[in-house]
Design goal:
By secondary structure, this protein is mostly helical. The protein has helices at residues 2-29, 43-52, 59-71, 86-121, 126-140, 143-157.
Length: 165
């Protein structure tokens, strides 16, 4: 059992490497760059920004630096927020993310387990079909559709949660 679990955990490493590599190169091959704005920058300033962030290096060198940084837990500088590293931004938002995730898990378990038990006890009856229908709708509708609807209901209409900020 332990050997199987270790094998599965070790299998995560090549999978993550493939995902990181694909994400890195797809982002670099996409047109535009992190400093493209509505206003064009003078070439000297654009060159200085690219040199400061290491974007003037060959892509293979950028990839190597990125992998070394990831191995040390450094996700690099933020291209959006000046003088911040991505790791700092993650640490700053982590308490809120953990709070929201924990509350979501508690709500899901406290509603899902009793409803699942009730559906199992009334197999092939109206309650079973209703619970299964709601579960299938929850699985089928993507998060990017559900999130704005929930923000509209709980933030705008009911005023229970802040919509932004």
């Amino acid at each position: 059992m332990l050997r199987y679990a270790l094998g599965r955990l070790l299998g995560v490493i090549p999978t993550l490497l493939v995902i990181v590599t694909a994400a890195f190169f797809v982002m670099r091959l996409a047109p535009g760059g992190p400093f493209d704005q509505e206003q064009t920058l003078p070439p000297e300033i654009a060159a200085n920004l690219e040199a400061a962030y290491g974007l003037d290096q060959p892509m293979v060198v950028q990839y190597g630096r990125y992998l070394v940084g990831l191995a040390h837990g450094d996700f690099g500088p933020s291209f959006k927020y000046k003088d911040f590293r991505v790791s700092e931004l993650i640490v700053r938002g982590l308490p809120v993310t953990l709070t929201i995730g924990t509350l979501a898990l508690l709500i899901a378990v406290s509603l899902g387990v009793p409803l699942g038990m009730a559906a199992a006890l009334r197999h092939n009856r109206a309650l079973d079909h209703a619970v299964m229908g709601i579960a299938l709708v929850g699985i089928a509708i993507p998060n990017f559709v559900v999130a704005p609807v929930l923000a509209l209901v709980f933030g705008v209409k009911l005023g229970l949660l802040p919509v932004a900020g």
